[in-house]
Design goal:
With 39 residues, the protein is mainly α. It has 1 helix and no strands. It has one domain. It has one helix spanning 9-20. Residues 3-38 form the RNA-binding protein KhpB N-terminal domain.
Length: 39
């Protein structure tokens, strides 16, 4: 498993897809944790 991080979930996904050079349809994406927003 390879982990990628970003400011948003979408940013992390895009970084991973670009680095691995694969289309989104070929990727198995699992969100491990999301940043908690301050209330």
């Amino acid at each position: 498993m390879v982990l990628f991080t970003g400011s948003t979930v979408e940013e992390a996904i895009q970084k991973g897809l670009k680095e691995l050079d694969i289309p989104r349809m070929k990727a198995h994406i699992k969100v491990v944790s999301k940043e908690k927003k301050d209330s």
